[in-house]
Amino acid sequence: MGSYVPNTPSEQQEMLKECGFSGFDDLYRDIPESVRLKTPLDLPEGRSELGVRRLMEEMAEKNTIYRHIFRGAGAYNHYIPAIVNTIAGKEEFRTAYTPYQAEISQGVLQTIFEYQTDICTLTGMEASNASVYDGAVAAAEACEMCRERKRSVILVSGTVDPKTLSVVRTYSFGRDVKVISVPEKDGITDTEELKKLLTSEVSCLLVQHPNYYGILEPMEELTEAVHAAGARIIESCNPVSLAILKTPGELGVDIAVGEGQPLGIPLSFGGPYLGFMAAGKKMMRKLPGRIVGQTVDCDGNRTYVLTLQAREQHIRREKASSNICSNEALCALRAAAYLAAMGPEGFRSVAVQSTSKAHYLQEKLAEAGLTLCCPDKEFFHEFVTVCPEPEKVLSALDKNGILGGLPLGNGRILWCATEMNTREEIDKVSGIVKEVTGA
Amino acid sequence: MKLVFERSMPGRGTRYLPDLDVPVHLPDAAARQAALNLPELPETETDRHYTALAGQTYGVNNGFYPLGSCTMKYNPQINEEMAALPGFTQIHPLQDPETVKGCLEVMETLEKFLCEITGMDAVTLQPAAGAHGEFTGLLLIKAYHRERGDMARTKIIVPDSAHGTNPASASMAGFDVVSIPSDGNGCVDLEALKAAVGPDTAGLMLTNPNTVGLFDPNILEITRIVHEAGGLCYYDGANLNAVMGIARPGDMGFDVIHVNLHKTFSTPHGGGGPGSGPGGCKAFLAKYLPGKGVEGSIGDVRSFSSNFLVAVKALTYILSIGREGIPAAAENAVLNANYMKEKLKDIFPMAFDKVCMHEFVISMEKMKEETGVSALDLAKAMLDHGIHPPTMYFPLIVHEALMVEPTETETKETLDEAVSIFREICEEALANPQSMHEKPLHTAVRRPDEVLAARNPVIRYDFEA
């Protein structure tokens, strides 16, 4: 109730008087009379904190919380150590603005510098920005980084998450840039078709690895083909997979992007999440958004500042590398705190457990009659099965409080497992599926 | 302060996961060879590290934060608790709609409230920030002209007082930017606008109240000129806090808008984000909105529905303050700004000395000329007094600008105290101008060498060094 306005009505009157106003109306004398609202807004009356709490809790209770989740497809259920929530909840971090005044913002600046270092470590790249809105936007921004005057066509592999493709297409509508989808073959990018599409007008290929179906792409082959054609390659990657898979740096790709949500950020119905972006030193100055750099203060002390701002909208205006201003800094802090908590062993364990449990799940589902698609391909922690009646399978799981995989149409289901799924849980899933399929 | 990597000791660390209970599987090939240089810390050290870093961070809860154009109002704690409800945080974005009715209700309710507050017919919560909302709104304008076959409308008019995001967003949406000068009052120069519009005008982007803190009194004339030329009007909602519940962009002739939940609607800014920049429009543009699953949409601007937890916080805020609290917040934001301006104007030259909205702009140009003390020097001196300085050097049309936005959530005593700090610094500057270039003296670090940072970029820790 109220409006978090601390001054009492009599203080407000006193202040108005001191400024020479007879009332609040005087403050708005520049607003044309015809535009002034004559009646109150059609909104509910303010409520007490208890009243608001009840309303919001009622809404939250209308959602189904699944204790057992086997769905990924861009949002992943991982364990978040308690300390990550504690750190992200610290009110100094939470209620600060972008650190324009470095002298009183060393804490937040250092967290971003540490985050940038972590992203470079995970990706094997040399330069990371301070985050963008989400993984799909990171991919779209990376495509823009590759655009040149004579090379503007964007190739997107058919195995990229369709949501990412949709965002790349939207951004390309803005720049009037052509986006061509590269066909998939047996669950991976069709290299032969790709080679045909790699004309001198192509700026880049966007590929996801592990791809939307969880399958590892032939990255070396793709990178070689794209570079041979004088274009650039952007790898969209799951950060957890980078604990055990070759890094984008080792693969020789030009830009690594991805959705940072698996790094300690709750599912939260899709946001806020974290788009990470990293590139080699050569493309550093094309990165969009904030970047924190190390320098010294006038006493020679190590100091962190926002840097390379000549790329940014507040300096370059219409010539900026991007319009981004607000980013996802607190989510980046979460990711850094998560990685600090897990450490190299713990983080590697998340990756190993996720892929191991996904393979166990796949075997158990195969026993229960769900056929693995593209069985000759290696997958990470997601895979696709096919069966005659996927709806029945998923609804049987749902009745048992289990969120099954994502239906993809044509009898296909995209499954995911992480360290959160126990053997017992997976065996239970298998048993329920078996009852449906009669296998 | 030590970096987290400098606190690391091999073999230390805390275990958070149980042992693997299924056979281990590792990929056949393609294994990572590079070192995984993540910190190895016991939890006590991790906790202390971040507590120390928080101690060197300044948020709204630390004190007065009159950062112009950023609306650093108080972030209510109930918002945070509601956004932390497991019924919101543990929901997968790709669950069946039947199982996420509460999330959909949050979104629909917030969209409806935002429509009412702004006078728009439809709202999307997809955009993750103000600039993202601008980009989305401009694509709506582009789609509209394209569908009508009006291919010649390639220009977006932007006043020279605009936020940098406006021209940058217009450029990303594929438009050419036409910058028009402001008049002597910091408002849109009507003659310049008339001269700029034509058959190539796609639209105008305007912040109102504008970036010098004034409500443009010619607003109806401005939107009429643009509409008569066949263009659409975009409202940058960065400054909505001054007029919510008092006047609505939809009634001023605007067709497309964005609002900043992290400014006007009390959600925290997180040291840079996440924010949320919902986009709104009139009915004739609604089919182009992203995230509605409607034919003709410009397509998605992000993977999922919204920065959902931010939406939860904004909805909690609107439900708390309600229909009477919305205009009361605006009125007191404007009153607090006018009060501070009144108490400062005898010694600080106001860029525009008239009734301001939620913020006002000081120009230190004269002091700079006479004493060499710049707006930057004054801002840095404020750091020693424990308040966050105003926005510096913006808007670009005011030289040596300091832009002050106190917001409605500050008490009269806080304003009085800030006024006396401002005055004290001004007196010191006049008495001893040289000393001002040394400020701040008492902060964790002092003025950074920004040139060195840009010339020799060190943007990650070097593990080999």
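qc> The first strand of chain A starts at residue 68 and ends at 69.
qc> done
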